[in-house]
Amino acid sequence: ARFEPHPKGRTMPIATVINTVEPMANPGVVVFEHGGKSYRLEALDEGDGQLFLIFADRTSGKTTYGAGRFLYADPPKNGVTVVDFNQAYNPPCVFTHYATCPLPPPENRLDVAVEAGEKKYRGPVAQAASKTGAR
Fold this sequence. Notes:
Layout: E1 2-5, E2 11-15, E3 21-34, E4 37-45, E5 51-55, E6 69-73, H1 123-132
Antiparallel strand pairs: 1-3, 2-3, 3-4, 5-6
């Protein structure tokens, strides 16, 4: 993906699952092509230099977690980084009600189905039943 930097010090408001809004550092946007279309994801910086991408897509709530997924990308080199959706994963709030997870900003709701990455968590009861053949 191409990385387009924002002015230094820029933040964007990020809503959480507990109805709070927190400003997060927003160093820029990653722009990538898929199926002849261009897509953009606003990147966040948690202080470690990696680009933190919170996104939702056409699979959200169907085959993947409804509130979206997380993905990290390496810091850009020469204005480019790799956005590997195979590495997309569910946020901690999928597994427990005691986690405070950020939600994808409106800018990061992709109008495409991202079939790669972690799928919807079915829970320990559903997993145990599928192993024994129970329903």
